[in-house]
Structure formats: structure tokens, C-alpha cells
Amino acid sequence: MYQLLNTLYVTTPGAYLRLDHDTVKVQVEHETLLQTPLLHLGGIVCIGRVNMSPALIQRCAQDGRAIVFHDSRGRFAARVVGPTGGNVLLRRAQHEALSNPEQTAAIGRNIVAGKLQNSRQLLLRGAREARDEPDRMALREAADRLADVLRRLEDRDDPQQIRGLEGEAARAYFQVFGRLIRADREQFGFSGRVRRPPIGRVNALLSFLYALLLNDCIAAAEAVGLDPQVGFLHTLRPGKPALALDLMEELRSVLADRLALTLINRRQIAAGDFEERPGGAMHLTDDSRRRVISAYQRRKQEELSHPLLGRQLPLGLVPHIQARLLARHLRGDLEAYPPFLTR
Description:
This protein is an alpha/beta fold.
């Protein structure tokens, strides 16, 4: 039996979270807005001006429940976790694999292959649903370019070359991403991925969704006992959750990109749900952030068939499944790391 625990996202300015026996109370000016059992929560994410009692922080640390803080723009600020858990032998195997160039390249290559295959499926689906022939042709051509990169990826065993091919495919993907947008193209124009700061409404929406997905991938790595900072595709850097960034690559198009397109094309997000900051950066408003979080939580509850396990499971469990499969490979139980592939 699988249990998908909820993540509590708190975005209300001035909110205060405190422990009440085995529940979390969310209060604003002493008025209780929400009370939920801790047992049902896998994590707590606070966005903006949100405070928390020391008792609740200590209880979450004891239970192994992560607390994440973001600033009002949705950018990561801090993460509170308890004592390091998991199997130290697994983490040692993870570090030893990083010292093995062949194994590092094999893991990174499979991660990129999974990402490209899932991105390609999104482009092909968009081409089938496109209303205009120029959009259809451009999306098919980009899908063909990703297929070509996949073929060239097969015999690459140098991490730098693998990263180079991933970057080439990402540029081809985002060059046509705007053609997947069918509603309000004038307001949701997209000419390429710009992250820091996010320029344009689509970049702002993608950045926020990627931040939510990254939190889930960090939690998945820690839950299995892996070190989130020791990755195989992304380069190591102090404070950078390289392994979590690795895990989310296969899931960007599945959990974030598709959801962003759905919100825009169904007009569940409109131009007025964004605000422009000095320098041209765009950010979601407080109300629109809450709606995007709700949509993301609903997306995680949707079930799909995992190609390796051959069973139905919630999409929100996929980061945990993939982290566990990676752990099995590092322990020697699997010959290779199997990426997550969607249809």
C-alpha cells in the first residue's frame, strides 16, 4: 500500500503556525484558519511572511518532517530538517559512485535520456493538438531534434558531453515551447527560458512550479537516505541540491511544464495574476500562487502506470520511487538506473 502524504503550503501574510497536541494550527491575528493532523503531513512549505512556533519546529524535526521557507517571490530561503537519517552505507556508495567516471556518466546519461524522451512526448502531443500548421511543423521538427540528440547520447561517456547534449536539447525544446500555448498568446508570449530573474509570465509560472518540484525531490532523496547535494548530472557546488536537481529533470515536463500549459490554455491563470517588478521580472500574485499550489497538489494526486513497476500510483510518488530505484542501483541491486518515462 502506498501513502501519499500532503504538503501544507502556507502563503497568507502574517500567518502563524503552532503545535496543538498532534495537530498544526494556522492562525492570523489569533483567528484559526486551518487545523490539520500532523500525521497527514509529509512537509510544510512557508511562502512569504509566515512564522512558526519553536515547539512545532522541534516536533517536525523529531518526526523527520521537513520545513521549507521561501520568500514572497517563491525563491528558496531556508530548509529546516532534523538529525541525518538513512543508511550511512548507502550514502557511502553514493559518494563512491561519484568517484567512478563510468558509473557517473551512465547515471547522468539515463537521467538525460528520460528527460528528453518525456519532453519529446510533450512536443508530439502538442503537435497533434495544434490548430495551425506552422505550430504543428515547428513542434514536430523540435521533436525530431530531440530524437537526434537521444541517438547521439547513446555512446557518450563523458559527463561534459552529456551535459552539452542536454543543453542543446533544452534550447530546442524551449524555442518552440511558446507554440504549445493556445490561449492569450499576446499576454503569454514566450521566446525562451529566462530564470534569474524570470522574465515574462510563462517564465515566472515555470520557475514557481520548478521550485515546488525541487522541494519534493529533495524530500524524496532524504526519505530514501541519499544525500541531496551529491548528484551525477549536475555539478557539485556548496549549497546546491545536485541530486534533487538530477531527479527533477525527468519530471519537469510531466509535473511542471504540462501543468503550466494547462493553467494557461484553460485560462485558469490570466495576465492579471502576475505583477512586474523593477528590472522586468515577473512574479505571481499572492492569490495566484495559492491557486497554482492547489493545482499542483491536484496534479500530484493523479494516477498513472509506472512503466517499470507496472502498477497504478499517484504522480506525486514518482520522485520517491525514482529515488528508491537510484538507491537500489547504488547498492548494486540494479545494473543501471532506470529513468521515469511517460507516454
